[in-house]
Amino acid sequence: MTLSQFKKGEVTMQRYVCGVCGYVYDPVEGDPESNTPPGVPFEKLPEEWVCPVCGAAKDEFAPE
Prior knowledge:
Number of strands: 5
Largest sheet: 3 strands, antiparallel
Oligomer: single chain
């Protein structure tokens, strides 16, 4: 298992990096600024979710 992945049972969650500012969404931590609890994979974030640092859209992120 790499540092960019987290195993929770049978599910592996990938970290995603903002292509604009470099912010890393880590599903282990979630996103407290948008009330996203730990354990929510990037794919399950709402389409309207944006980078908490720069406001970039979800489609600006890529797997780490």
